[in-house]
């Protein structure tokens, strides 16, 4: 009888120890992750608008900004990005929720962001100037805009251009009537 009580007592003690050492519920919140990984700031980024998310239309480097909103969210914004064959300048402003991901990564999701694709100097775009395979919707010669942009992605050690580094890797869906996704990854 005493041995049985000792066994129960030992099992109870082990159970308490296992539960008190469980780190699954001790994950970092968005505010802590933003500070730990120093996520706010300006970054040089490769921005690639891609038809159906896989066929690049153009690609170029641009400075993008991440602002710490102080509540576990980041604001991504950049203005007037234009590269190569792009007839429009892109402007983006979107807020992302920040959460811990697997293997020392940080995950991001955001919605209801602002996306603008405007012709430089306020001029209209000739539909013939748009890259092959993409047809502008009627009336889009003066630009496109949306407040329905969404974004998802991660921050962690990612290999791009044969270099592994801590970087953002994001996919933005602009919410406009074109099958375009904007792929964004930071250079540093």
Précis, in short:
This protein has one domain (27-186). 14% of the residues lie in helices and 48% in strands.
Task: Walk me through this protein's architecture.
By secondary structure, the chain is mostly beta strands. The chain has one domain (27-186). The protein has helices at 2-21, 30-36, and strands at residues 41-51, 55-56, 60-68, 73-81, 89-100, 106-118, 144-160, 163-173, 180-186. An eight-stranded antiparallel beta barrel has the order 1-3-4-5-6-7-8-9. Strand 3 (60-68) and strand 4 (73-81) form a beta hairpin. It is elongated and about 55 Å long.
Number of DSSP helical runs:
2
- Mean of residue pLDDT values: 84
Summarize the helix and strand pattern as letters. HHEEEEEEEEE
* Helicity level: 10-25%
Radius of gyration: 23 Å
Structural class: mainly beta
Could you give a short account of the major beta sheet?
A: 8 strands, antiparallel, barrel
Instruction: State the shape.
Output: elongated
Q: Give the termini distance in whole angstroms.
A: 66 Å
How many separate domains make up the residues?
Answer: 1
Unreliable spans: 17-25
Give the helix/strand layout.
Blueprint: H1 2-21, H2 30-36, E1 41-51, E2 55-56, E3 60-68, E4 73-81, E5 89-100, E6 106-118, E7 144-160, E8 163-173, E9 180-186
Antiparallel strand pairs: 1-2, 1-3, 1-9, 3-4, 4-5, 5-6, 6-7, 7-8, 8-9
């Amino acid at each position: 009888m005493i041995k049985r009580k000792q066994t129960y007592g030992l099992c109870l003690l082990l159970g308490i120890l296992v539960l008190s050492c469980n780190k699954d519920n001790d994950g970092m919140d968005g505010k802590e992750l933003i500070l730990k990984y120093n996520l706010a700031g300006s970054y040089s980024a490769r921005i690639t608008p891609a038809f159906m998310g896989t066929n690049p239309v153009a690609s170029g480097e641009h400075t993008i900004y991440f602002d710490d909103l102080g509540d576990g969210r980041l604001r991504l914004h950049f203005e007037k990005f234009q590269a190569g064959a792009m007839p429009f300048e892109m402007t983006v402003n979107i807020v992302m929720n920040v959460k811990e991901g697997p293997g020392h990564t940080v995950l991001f999701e955001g919605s209801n962001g602002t996306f603008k694709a405007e012709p430089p100097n306020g001029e209209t775009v000739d539909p013939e100037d748009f890259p092959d395979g993409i047809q502008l919707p009627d009336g889009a010669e003066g630009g496109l805009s949306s407040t329905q942009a969404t974004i998802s992605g991660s921050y962690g050690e990612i290999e791009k251009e044969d270099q592994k580094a801590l970087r953002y890797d994001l996919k933005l869906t602009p919410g406009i009537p074109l099958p375009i996704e904007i792929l964004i990854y930071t250079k540093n």
